[in-house]
Amino acid sequence: MSLIYFASGDSHANIEYQTISSTATEANLEQSERLHDRISKAQFQKLYERFKSAPDQVVGCGDLRRMLEDVDISFSDFTYTRLFLKINQNHDFMIDWNEFVSYLIFGFQDEDPSSQKESLIMPISTAPVVRKTEHRSAVCCITLLKVKSDQTPLEDITESTNYSFGGEDSPENSGMWVTASHEGQLRFWSAHMEPLRSAVSESIHLKVPTWILALQALSDVSIVCTSSTERELRFHETIASTFTLRMVIRSLPFAVYCMSYAFYNNGKTHSRLVLGDYAGNVRILSYSPYLRGPFQAKPGAALVELTWADVLRGRIPLLIPKEYINLHNELISCVYYSLHMNTLFASAEYRNTKKYRGRCPGLIMVSNEDRNNFRIPLGVSVFYVSEVKNILVTGGPDTFVRIWDVYISSEPSAILTGHNGGIVAVFVQPEENKVYSVDYHKIIKVWDLQEHTLLQTYGELVRIIHPSEMDIKYYYHSHLRELMVAGRKLIQIKCCPRVRVDLTDGNTHAAPVSVVLYNRLFRNIVTCGLDSYIIVWDPWTGRRKIIMKNCHTKMIYGETIDIEITAACFDPLEQFLLTGARDGSLKIWNYNNSVVVRNMSIQIDQEVTAVIWVVDRILAMGWDRQVTEFNDVGGEYGDPKKWAKFHTDDITCADVKLGEGVVTATYSGEIIFWKLETGQPYRRYNVMDPSKFIELKLTAEEEKLSRRTKRMSSLLGVNKRNTSLLSSKPDEIKDYGAKIPVSVQAVLFLQKRPMTKEHGSVFISLDTGIIQVYSHHQHGGYIKEFVAVHKVGDCVLTMATDRKNRFLYTGTAFGYIKVWHIINYCIPEEEKTHVCMPRLRLDFIFLRKEIFLTRAKRMVRNQPEPMLVSSYKGHLKAINSLRFINLPKIIFSGSHDYSCRLWTQGGRYLGTLGTVLPWSKLTPFERAGEENRAYRLPPDIKKVASSTTLKVISGIQHSFQVKRAKPTEEREDEGEVEDTGADMKNMFDRPLREPILGKHFALPGRSAIEQRIELDTAQLYVPIYSHLRVHPSEIMENLPMPPIISQLKGENYLDHYMPVVGKVDTSSSAINIREPIKVGRSRAGGTLRQAPRVSSSRDKPKTNSVLGMPRAGTSLGKSMANSAKAGVSSGYGRTNFAASRPRSYSPTSSISSHIKTGRKPDFSAGKAKAAWSSHKAKQVPTPAKAKPEFTLANTKPAVRRNKRDASPIKATTSTAKAQNKKP
Questions:
Q1: In the structure, what pLDDT confidence band is assigned to residue 1172 with cuts at 50, 70 and 90?
Q2: Which keywords does this chain's UniProt record carry (predicted)?
Q3: Correct CATH for 41-111 of 1.10.238, 2.170.120, 1.10.3470, 3.40.50
Q4: Among candidates 350, 342, 343, 433, which has minimal Cα distance to 393?
């Protein structure tokens, strides 16, 4: 809580204050007071001579204006006064030459882009991810199956950004890690270190176990290449989760120690595999990646085996070899090929200083047979080439990191010192201008590429990796900005990761933002955070102008600890900044040059919660429970003055009214009004009983309470702290009429309200979500109160108002920003003005009507004043500070989620200070957010926003047209309502048809006795249907199944079909199939006879299915229907077709086939039923003494008669089998 006001009647100071209070017209503000763009070198020389010739070499306000007009630099009165205040940094209203030059220098520094590069957090700030490698031994090499190449053609290079939309983190774009151990075991990992599969690379001829030396991924052809001590190169295919050996190159002259691979994404340039061996030779295999080049799968050639001599002879035409023999005298330590420069880089270590005497070519660059030697003592272990910056970074055993111009090999452009061991890994982030280096002792150092300064030393790897592990492998993922460290463990370290703009717009601070201020003189925003940072922002361009780190520090056991900034304010002329910290220290800053002017303190280890700077005096309040007064910067520094200690608890907030008084409030709900001139209290209240008069006299209990030791409130919450105190001593606050006190979170003085009993001039925010209004008059007091939140547990933490006190802006603990119309609230009736509601609805979309009353409106529907004109969720966490800029009508809020966001008065989102996205066009002279367009939402708010928040922030309200429901009779006459699809406006257009529950349900009747619903609210969640009466369910009675259904259920559907070999006659029906002639054999053997042909289709009954059921229109169908009706009367609707079926009814011949001679006929139940379902067309005679030929066409149904029942019964399966056994 912090504000600035004047307490004296100094006319000179009042004139200056009116200058910076933005009371001038908009036309006067159009002219900028910036002097840097209007002064030339000749004018500058003339001004210097004028300053030297002035008395005492200082000039006043009028003298400086005449000097500027003499060199043709003129300003308006208002603009020139602002310029003079900016130049006058000594507060003496006299300017010397040093002040004038300092103002120009600081102005030019604001335009320096280097002020934007300093990051709020360290490049490596997140905890590393560690997991086991699942290898039997330590990982000896690691590579990445990339999706995109690190090298890009010159014409495709675009400006790199520091943010991403999340696509780089997707599995499709991240690639796949491959690790290998010496015994030949390979493991595949996802980009987020999830194990995928494992494989083995071993020699196919030698029986001895392999020993892997190097591993390289050929990403554009999906090949993984391994080199081993057998002097082999094994190329494994990894397409579709396979690991197949595709090619083996044996009998290399020397074993390959290191490999590198270069390719383009477009596939138009030859890819190159670079091999460095133990003898100092470098070999290059180049090929075209089109159709996977030499690794294309061909039928009949699953594995290609050849020697290196065969490769040189051109056995594989698609593989083009090239050799550089004896490029180095020692083994090749690192190789790289740049496609952009068409250049080969190869390095080696020369540790034998007696042999080479420091004249060793540590790195050789080969381009078109031209060689450049980068001579480095002890050689080069690792290097990194950045084609974007045209630089080369090398590291070796001499512990130095050298930065070279890639085209100048005579001497390095910079040497970075600081490592205590040999360099084992280096890489560059060109878009961040950072160089990372890792030494033998596992220490990572981050360097600035332009300033050549050390930014961070990261030693977490020493703790994670065992000291005995020395052979550690490093690989940098340029797209994910992650460093992979492999040994016995896999360690993933994020190195300055990109901002995910699909999740957040970025952060303003590295910790929660505690105070936000607007400087009307310099027109910039100052933010202070719990990270002990003070940052100056230009809200019109979104640029960061000045950043001050480690503002408040404390030495604890020899270590410097940052102290959180909890309060801040400006001086009356807004040239200096006053900050208060958690340890009780206060500092005065000239924040334009980051210089501390003065150090002060209220009491050791007592948090400063509010600071106020009035003319000639500084007031500081905090956990010492009293007001401490300091002299101004211009006066003499003396001992601070302590005001009377009337508070019995820690002071949480304070505010001041210009020339009238100060109000302070505490955790226990005490409110005391003080005279600003004398520092004496004149009224005292308690928020729990605001109408009660409390005498300004310390009772014995309060004196005893004030002498008690301050409790450890910094470790506990506000409510918990008060509750614990009251539980221990409940009688100490019995004067206030309650056991649990209500704390005050914020206070606000309305500067335009007069000091009368009828005018509510002080707003008090409580932790219960209520805002109380008081009059600070001596005979005034509590007037009214209203609910300022719409969620249980929420409360207002900060309040602000505009210059004319028309609106009240509140920020809550749940992140909501609310705007209240208070122009007619708590004032006499004769002073109230007319409110133009159409104008308010144009300015605040929240007031426009909706179909359903939203939650924020439901809370205030019975609360006519003050009117809630806007409500939306601005942050995910609590809003700690809120301010308002009058002329452009901009609200900016600082939150516990590390961000400071700008909003229009109507609620449109303008941006977050510190974002990586482009900034909106803003100006201090025009109102922001006037254009009618859809505004974007913060990504984090978009995921949790309600309908009200979406409407207010975006500025778009979907219109719904509700039609009155028509009576049921009219709707039935009109017929069915047309389906309008997915149109939103017709979502609620059609009411439900009557009856809503259908014809099978009925609502229970209303009981004569009123039944009261009692819900159990003891649990966290209330089951809303638990009060309904539930009837016990009964077991449903199953009706007996008819016998005909039971019999059909046991049949097999496939028994009705036989293989058809005949031809289909397309001219007749679909079931008229001509069957082939079957040849039958007699049982005696030898005699073959032809089976009779089935009758034609004209003799068949008319059917309507392939099962042979008669059609409804035929006589047979009518007889069956009559018999079915007759059978319904008996049993459960059972129909006996056997009694009414004619004798000539035979199976359908079109779907039957003859049974081969020599096999017994099948009289199963299914075929017997099929035989009964069709009409017999013709009787075929059977010759004597010969086995009859059974077909489905001439088989009679097997019928038996029961002695007790004369009705025929179908033959069962057992009966049919018994008949088949008869000769």
A1: very low
A2: Repeat, WD repeat
A3: 1.10.238
A4: 433
Dihedral sign, Cα of residue 154, residue 158, residue 162, residue 163: negative
Of 868-872, 917-921, 1071-1075, least confident by mean pLDDT is 1071-1075
Q: Which tokens is 101 given?
A: 């030059």
Please compute Rg for the chain using Cα positions.
46
d(CA 130, CA 489): 7
Taking each continuous run of H as one helix and of E as one strand, the counts in the chain are: 23, 70
Q: At 30, which amino acid appears?
A: E
> How does pLDDT run across 579-629, given as a tens digit for each residue?
999 999 999 998 777 888 889 999 888 999 999 999 889 999 999 999 999
The three-state secondary structure class of 801 is strand
Three-state SS for 112-163 is CCHHHHCCCCCCCCCCCEEEECCCCCCEEEEEEECCCCCCCCHHHCCCCCCE
Cβ-contact 258, 327 below 8 angstroms: no
Q: How far apart are CA 652 and CA 747, in angstroms?
A: 9
* 670-675/661-666 β-pairing: antiparallel
Within 13 Å of residue 494, how many CA atoms lie on the same side as its CB?
15
Q: How far apart are CA 374 and CA 377, in angstroms?
A: 10
3-state secondary structure 344-382: EEEEEECCCHHHHCCCCEEEEEEECCEEEEEECCCECCE
* pLDDT of 700 higher than 50: yes
Which runs of E-coded beta strand occur in 194-342?
195-200, 212-218, 223-228, 233-237, 244-250, 256-262, 271-277, 282-287, 304-307, 320-324, 332-338
Least confident of 651-665, 932-946, 1029-1043, 1054-1068: 1054-1068
Residues 6+ apart with CB under 8 A from 550: 532, 560, 562
Half-sphere exposure in the Cβ direction for 433 (13 Å, CA):
14
Residue 799: HSE in the Cβ half-sphere, 13 Å Cα cutoff: 29
Give the separation between CA 465 and CA 483, rounded to whole angstroms.
Answer: 15
Provide the 8-state DSSP code for 959: -
The DSSP secondary-structure symbol of 1110 reads: B
**Helix-helix angle 61-70:41-53, to 10 degrees:** 140
**What contacts 319, CB < 8 A, 6 or more positions away?**
285, 286, 287, 293, 294, 311
Q: How many residues does the chain have?
A: 1223
383, β-bridge pairs: 394
The overall pTM is greater than 0.70: no
Cβ atoms of residues 1200 and 1091 within 8 Å:
no
Burial class (CB in 10 A: 0-12, 13-18, 19+), 145: middle
Write the pLDDT tens digit of every residue in 226-259.
Answer: 999 999 999 999 987 888 899 999 999 999 999 9
Q: Provide the pLDDT confidence category of residue 1222 given band limits of 50, 70 and 90.
A: very low
Report pLDDT for 1048: 75
Confidence tier at 103 by pLDDT (50, 70, 90): confident
Segments making up each domain of the chain, as ranges: 41-111, 201-322, 327-464
- Ramachandran assignment for 245, one of left (phi > 0), alpha (psi -120 to 50 degrees), beta (any other): beta
Q: What CATH architecture applies to the domain 327-464?
A: 7 Propeller (2.130)
CA distance 573 to 77: 17
**CA dist., res. 439 & res. 435, Å (int):** 13
